[in-house]
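User: Run a structure prediction on this.
Assistant: Running it now.
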Amino acid sequence: MAARTADKARAANDGTLGTFKYNCSMDNKMFAFAGIDASERHLAAISTADDRGAEALLLRKLAGKPDDEAAGYNSVILEWAVNPNGGNC
């Protein structure tokens, strides 16, 4: 999800997002878990040509989160992937 949201943020910035959506429900699950918002993630993603800016933001925000919280988040994302309720995200 981290790389996907960074890619979508850059595509949204470049006007090449197509039918996908940045700041959709799946993105928002990651934002909520990391304690960031879409604009903060967007700025971090476009700050570098690769994932370094977005990665640095996540590493700062996720530092110290317990492993069980990360496992819970991963379960939510995996469940969403199986049952996405339609739409492009």
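The chain has one domain: 2-82.
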